[in-house]
Amino acid sequence: MTVSPLVWGVTIVVILALLAFDYFFHIRKAHIPTLKEAAIWSSIYVGLALIFGGVVWVLGGSQMGTEYFAGYITEKALSVDNLFVFLIIMASFRVPREDQQKVLLFGIVFSLIARTAFILLGAALINSFSWVFYIFGLILLITAGNLLKPESTEGDDEANNFIIRLARKIFHTSDSYDGDKLFTMENGKRVLTPMLLVMVAIGGTDILFALDSIPAIFGLTQNVFIVFTATAFSLMGLRQLYFLIDGLLDRLIYLSYGLATILAFIGVKLVLHALHENTLPFINGGEHVSVVEITTGLSLSVIVGVLLVTVVASLVSPAGKAMTAVNNARRHADAYLDLHYTADPEERERVYKALCDEEQDILKMDLKYRDKVKDIEEIRETVARAHSEHERYLSR
């Protein structure tokens, strides 16, 4: 189905209006969103995405509707996985809790711009060269394999990449934040703040994410309107989702396996489609290869099924519960000890109470699960220091 310029224009205006609303009504004044606020707005954005999908289904037909929902669910799952990296980056730069919303919104906007560019490039390549499907399929199969690799023991130092090191050498940067400002005055000179550097780091990783996500959704549909809207709506509400599931991300211990399965499945689908449309002379003499093609309906069923199994298995897993509690305790202990984390006394009290609650949960768990968590002894030392610091604070 061909989408008219009017529909394109209205859709883009709606997406831009949502981003503007998010900034002026939620981000402009730095604050830490409550769990209730994050839950309400996450639900609203998911609801808007579902309503839009319903409109697409009614006006564009079941094929377009199925393609939209398959693309939206896949991109949403990949976006949740991206939150892990955002969490690492903001922890590396010690971004104050109340300023993290602005960083996330910037990441969403930059991601939308980067992915739109890749969508247009991908569409142009597909229209000109059918063999591009082979490349997209190979990218997804390699990405799926990388997701199954064990985590590096050295940790993810996403913040210390080449762009950041270059920026620190070329420009004058301050060591401390000045609210959510990108520039500040230091010794009479205008310098960059770490806020600008963390945005550069987020932007750099967004480009890498686009290299995986765009081939994935092109494996489900070649309709540029569906690719763009499914990608855009999957990013909407990602900021609120971050604060809603912050602390539960570690619980999804099997998410990488689920995403690897989905990406490998779509990669195979792309290769089969490339064979069906084959024009390469060294494959079957340049003639189309008669192969089974995977339908969009089957793709949607596989994606939903894999994600359900992955999430349920992660939530009921004793190892997942132990990892969540222990890592949350470490995160809250680090936050309490870090004076740059937040200037809000109520937020620090909330963090300490959460730490105490998590310790109680950990004590009830089987030792064989909690002792398997990486760096467990270091985590125990950090938690002990947090308690000592709290005792000193109370004795003042």
TrEMBL record:
Subcellular location: Membrane
Membrane-spanning residues: 6-26, 38-59, 79-96, 103-125, 131-148, 191-211, 223-245, 252-274, 294-316
Pfam families: TerC
Keyword Transmembrane tagged: yes
Transmembrane is among the record's keywords: yes
Coiled-coil region: none
Keyword terms, alphabetized: Membrane, Transmembrane, Transmembrane helix
Topology class, membrane: Multi-pass membrane protein
InterPro entries to which the protein is assigned, alphabetical: Integral_membrane_TerC, Integral_membrane_TerC_rswitch
Similarity annotation: Belongs to the TerC family.
Name of the molecule in the record: TerC family protein
